[in-house]
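Structure tokens please, single chain.
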Amino acid sequence: MIFVSVGSQLPFDRLIIAIDEWAATHQDETVFAQIGNSNFTPKHIEFCQTIDPINYDKRIKSADIIIAHAGTGTIITGLELGIPLLIMPRLAEKGEHRNNHQLATVKHFSTFTTITIVGNEQILVTTLDQMLKNKSASPEKITTTVSNKLITTIKDFIVDT
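Here you go.
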């Protein structure tokens, strides 16, 4: 299953339209999208505007691939679960966000092998096809545990302040 998320702040029609058009010719793939306050109504994918945390968690955990804007929450969740991520940042010049902070976000996460970053719709769908062909690759996961040394350092800082 392919899980698509655009977050809840702003529409990201460019991403949703590209995935919906791709799904029209890939009907053997299951796609579910959280589309936010979109101006576009998908015709070839299952979708909802918003999704509650329990269903979001269920959907994302069952995904083979996550496609998203460069939202840190989705990226970190995908990394924790070891699910390959296909990220297309929103661009301010296209009216998709107030500034280009998502470009800085993807630059920060670009070293992770589980994350593929694309700049436009054509590369998005081409890359998605490639990712589906290579599903068997072993995903990279990040750890969500905190070292005792870090906890001690933070406690010492708080106590000394």
